[in-house]
Every structure is written in C-alpha cells, then in structure tokens.
Amino acid sequence: MSRVLIIGAGGVGSVVTHKCAQLPETFSSILLASRTKSKCDAIAAAVSRPIETAQIDADDVAELTALLNSWKPELVINVALPYQDLSIMDACLAAGISYLDTANYEPPEVARFEYSWQWAYHERFKQAGLTALLGSGFDPGVTNVFTAYAQKHFFDEIHELDIIDVNGGSHGYAFATNFNPEINIREVTAPCRHWEEGTFIETPAMSMSKEFSCPEEVGTYTIYRMYHEELESLVRQYPTLRRAQFWMSFSEQYLTHLEVLQHVGMTRIDPVEYEGHQIIPIQFLKALLPKPSELGSRTTGKTCIGCLIKGIKDGREKTIYIYNICDHQEAYKEVGSQAISYTTGVPAMIGAKMLIEGTWRGPGVYNMEQFDPDPFMEALGAYGLPWNVMDL
Ligand code: NDP
C-alpha cells in the first residue's frame, strides 16, 4: 500500500495513471500533477477510481519539493519531458523520495542523449537510501529487460544486439508523431551512433536502412538505424557485446515531411526572432501538430518491438528474437490511448510496482537491466504486454 505521485499528463501520463488506478492494492493513493491542471482533471475523470490532481511546474525544484513534503509520496513517476529529469531528481533527494522515469535527461538547448548527468546522482541517492530507476518505458525499458532476460536464460555470452522498433500503425494524418513531437523529432534527426568493437561509431541520421519482417503477420517494414539511449547502458552492462544497434520503422511519407521541415528550418531548437518575439521553431511546430494523446481513437494496426540477440551457449552459436506485439485499438479500448503511449505507460507502472513492493531494491541510480528480469517479465504478460521468444 503506498502513495505515488505521477508528473506529466500527456499520452504516457494518462496510461500510467489508468494502470496504477487499476491496482489499488499496490498504489493506494495517486496524485497526478502537471503543468496544466485541466489535463490532469480530464484523466482523473476517466480512470477507474478517485485520484487527486495538482498543478506543478516541475522545473521549479523548490515548488516541487514543497509538494513532495506536503503530500509525502513513496515514489515519483516522472512522465513529463526529459528536460525535467534533473530538477525532479533534485526535489526527490531534497524530500527523501524514490524516483522513476522513462527517458534520459536532455538539456533543452542541445539535443544530447546520454546518461552521464543522471548517473552522476548515484552516490547521492545511495547515501540517502533512495532508488532512482531510469528508463522504465518500452525502449528504453522493456528492451533492456528483454536483453537481461536473454543473457540470464539463453546465453553464456551475448555478442550482437539489434533492438528493432516497428510501428505498423496508421493514424491517417499526413504527419504526426506518436509521442511528444519535440522529443521525437530531436531524437530522429540526431546523428546515428551504434556500438562496434568497443566504441560508438557515428554516421549521418537515417543513412542506413533495411527491410524487417515482423512475426505474427504484423508485416514487413523499412527500418532505419538510429541512436537510442539504452545502447549506452547495455554496452556498459554487457561488455561481451561486439555490436549493438537500434532500428526504428518510418514510412516514406513521414520521412519526406521531416526532410522538408528540416530544410525550411522548422526543426531548429535555437530561438529565432519573429516580429519582436523569440520563438523556437520546433516548439511552434509542436503546437501545430496533432497531440499524441489524441491519436488513440483513429490509430489502427500494431506495434512490434523486440530484441534480436546473437551469442554463444555451451560453445555453440545461438540467435533469439524476443518481442511484444501491441494492438493500437486494443490499447485504446482499455485505456483510451494508442499503443506507443500504452507500451510506455505499462512498463512505467510495472517498474513502480517493482520498487514499491520491494521486488527490485537497492539504493542508488539504476538502469533496468541491473535488476532481476524475471519478475518484470512475468508482470509484463499479466498487465497487458505479453511477449514471446523465437529460437532462430
Ligand atoms: P506529452 O507531451 O504528451 O506529455 C508531457 C507532459 O508533461 C504534458 O502533460 C506536459 O504538460 C507535462 N510537462 C511538460 N513540462 C512540464 C513541467 N515543466 N512541469 C510539469 N509538467 C510538465 O509527452 P508523452 O506523454 O508522449 O511523453 C512523456 C515522456 O515519455 C517523455 O519524456 C518521452 O520521452 C517519454 N517516452 C518514453 C518512451 C519509452 O519507450 N521509453 C516512449 C515514448 C515516450 P503540458 O500539457 O502543460 O504541456
């Protein structure tokens, strides 16, 4: 029985709140706080039992610390934006509360994706006897746990890892992103980095692609190699990895729109003077695009996200593919959101459950693969994200 504070009332925040509300025996009281309180109230009206809501600017450490001290949660689930990670971690330390997020910190002014800023909090969380669990979404998150599960049960050594994120869904818009547009576009337009023989190699964004056929008739899609944050923690945790890559599917239409937006400067993250105001083009673009939290009713099709892993077992080469398939409309029927928010929000709830119930414990800052994958894998199936392993 415990109190949990969820910060962020977007697509992912809505799913986490629904899923936590479904488990009153674990999450006895829920406070949903975000920048715009009306969005928290709309989610509160849709969930299965009464929850509290509040307005909070999570960039303001003092304001957030005061809220934590007065409401006294056991855990903060941060599903606001990556820009808020450090201020929320600071407030958690000040108030003595454990922390969980789904995306690594990014400084607003530069699109840099790395864990160094958050790993630097390890000693402080350890000294305080608190846990910070980083990246408890799907990728990062479940993909880290899939890798840990594969290493534990199927391999003596893992040598190659390909994380493959396919969204076979369609929302019918010419251009929209499935999670926060600003964060999504920063990620997709960043140079690619992949791990090869002990170092990260940088290549131009979207310069490498191939076809990938998903199981269970989800279809064949073009996937593009890009950098994704879980590569950084996984290659550290599994030094036997010789190559680690991340791939994501994009439609021709999405990439064409993105290219034009880039060429005309609409994806810039630096301020531009416009009629006496400073505007940041990517933030203006975000205001024009469909909201990811409102795509649910019109998105059909399935996601298929998994890890293709090669290695050695008992002296013999072995390859497995471990994956989840999630249906956009099934997710919408259950919690009113499309599958990208669903596949992120469910693991955030499960990570919170692991910490609150003490299944995963340890003071300090941790990535998902550092804990025993088995109870998390069991919970995935039980709470809406069943998985499968193919021995190839
Ligand atoms: P949204 O943009 O839909 O929601 C973000 C929410 O955070 C909004 O409610 C927003 O408020 C709120 N917010 C922003 N700034 C502040 C602030 N300073 N103080 C308080 N609240 C704030 O994003 P998503 O729900 O799509 O994504 C949420 C997080 O999940 C992101 O960090 C994203 O990177 C991560 N993610 C992780 C994935 C994974 O698999 N690991 C996959 C997809 C997403 P307002 O509405 O007022 O703007």
Relative helix content? 25-40%
Mean pLDDT: 96
Strand content: 25-35%
CATH architecture of one domain: 2-Layer Sandwich
Q: What is the H level of CATH, i.e. the homologous superfamily of one domain?
A: Dihydrodipicolinate Reductase, domain 2
Radius of gyration using CA atoms only: 20 Å
Distance between the termini: 43 Å
Shape: globular
The strand count comes to: 18
Give a verbal description of the structure.
With 392 residues, this protein is an alpha/beta fold. The chain has a domain at 142-336: Dihydrodipicolinate Reductase, domain 2 (2-Layer Sandwich). Helices cover 36% and strands 28% of the residues. Strands 7, 8, 9, 10, 11, 12, 15, 16 and 18 form a nine-stranded mixed beta sheet that branches. Strands 3-2-1-4-5-6-17 form a seven-stranded parallel beta sheet, with helices on both faces. It has a two-stranded antiparallel ribbon with strand order 13-14. A hairpin with a 2-residue loop joins strand 15 (302-313) and strand 16 (316-327). It binds NADPH dihydro-nicotinamide-adenine-dinucleotide phosphate (NDP). Residues 7-13, 34-36, 39, 56-59, 79-82, 84, 102-103, 135, 137-141, 179-180, 183, 292-293, 340, 344 line the site of NADPH dihydro-nicotinamide-adenine-dinucleotide phosphate (NDP).
